Amino acid sequence: MIINRLIAKNWRNFRQINVPLRERQFIVGPNASGKSNLLDIFRFLRDIVKTDGGGFQKAVRDRGGISKIRCLSARQDPEVSIEIHISETPGASTKWRYALGFRQETRGHRRTYLTREQVWKKSELLLDRPDEDDNVDTDRLTQTFLEQINMNAGFREIAQFLRSVTYLHLVPQLLRFADSIQGRIVEEDPFGQGFLERVASVTERTRRSRLRKIESALKIAVPQFEQLEFLRDKNTGRPHLRALYSHWRAKGVWQQEDQFSDGTLRLLGLLWALLESDSVLLLEEPELSLNLGIVSQLAPLISRMQRSRRRQVFVSTHSDALLTEPGIDGTEVLMLIPTKTETEVKVAWDVKHVRRLLEAGLTVGEIVLSRAGPEHAEQLSLLKWN
Ligand SMILES: Nc1ncnc2c1ncn2[C@@H]1O[C@H](COP(=O)(O)OP(=O)(O)OP(=O)(O)O)[C@@H](O)[C@H]1O
Ligand SMILES: [Mg+2]
User: Fold this and answer.
1) Which of 87, 294, 305, 326 is within CB 3.0–4.6 Å of 92 for a Cys-Cys bond?
2) Cα–ligand 2 centroid distance for 29 (angstroms)
3) Distances (CA, A) of 92 to 85, 123, 259
4) What Rg do the C-alpha atoms of the chain give, in angstroms?
């Protein structure tokens, strides 16, 4: 399934969002324009339905409460809302719509409560809260029905789908030192400390087939890279990856993951995530530590992988190399455009001058990112530092 539209109000630095979404969706904008905040909307929905220790209240609390979430320039309107539309396949009509609105009590315990929760299946409204029971017992409005098994029977498919949303912002150093920080992995492991455990947790057959695919990609991307293998430490039982490099010695040399380069580790993590599941994947700046030639291949790589695995992929990026592939069309790019009080989200194709340049044959990378930087970036090097 894929999320084919996002509508939101007062979420962090966005007052209003209403955009269609594609199976492969790039998000571009200057620093602090809200790329991570936008991805966080999907992580928030996932946190609501998480089976172990999830829930609406916790999802809000983990973000520092509603005062941190609600747009600072929202003025009179105290409500934050999110609505997603979901279809079975890209291009198919919308099957599910899920909408959520919430705010904070102005008195008493200042609880965060739902102002609405609605579910549509096609055009049929299956759930419409607050209902009569909610009005009698307002405590009910502190929980969504989506997170409750005995309430979501009619639309559990949505909860299951959101539960497997994955966020990846791989930090090679954390992966390398996974052993010494064992047991202190951030929930959902976005930074990859538990990556090796994830590789270890699938069946041998699945692991082999994935590692074989990754091996062929790394052979192209990493000089002298020959072979990739999974193994367990004989003494500690901990999982490891090792690679055979053909340099240095005639027979090659095996090196363990803590000796892999940053780019090798990031590429490994990225490819594994693409192969991992068929739900939404949120990728933060996958271009980091990768060679430009490799970065320019990431977009076609994602679409090729999507042919066998229908995984919707959102990519936040600062890289024009990533967007230079001519196959990327203007509807696959969301531009975050900061104004004085908020950030606007626009589909690149809908921005008149961008469309004109795309029609003239320029690539998205050539047009969009030159506009995504701060207006006076050159002043940075002119600053007096002492
Ligand atoms: N409730 C809020 N209201 C308004 N703005 C907010 C709110 N919460 C966070 N922000 C702003 O959002 C910005 C951070 O956005 P975010 O981290 O998503 O940027 P980004 O585009 O991912 O940047 P980078 O490219 O540096 O990673 C900060 O400037 C912060 O002030
Ligand atoms: Mg960011």
Assistant:
1) 87
2) 10
3) 11, 14, 46
4) 23
The CA distance from 320 to 259, in Å, is 29
pLDDT tens, position by position, 115-147: 999 999 999 999 999 999 999 999 999 999 999
Which residue is closest in CA terms to ligand 1's atom 7? 12
Of all protein residues, whose CA lies closest to atom 13 belonging to ligand 1? Answer: 32
Please list every protein residue whose CB sits less than 6 Å from any atom of ligand 1. 12-13, 29, 31-37, 68-72
Mind listing the pLDDT tens digit for each residue in 33-79? Answer: 999 999 999 999 999 999 887 899 999 999 999 999 999 999 899 99
Ligand 1 centre from 34 Cα, in Å?
5
Burial pattern 182-195, b for ≥16 Cβ within 10 A else e, equals: eeebeeebbbbbbb
Distance CA 177, CA 55 (A): 31
Whether the full predicted model's pTM is greater than 0.90, yes or no, is yes
Atom index in ligand 1 nearest the CA of residue 69 equals 1
Q: Concatenated DSSP letters for 116-145? A: EEEEEETTEEEEEES-HHHHH-GGGGGS-S
Q: Are 142 and 56 in contact (CB under 8 A)?
A: yes
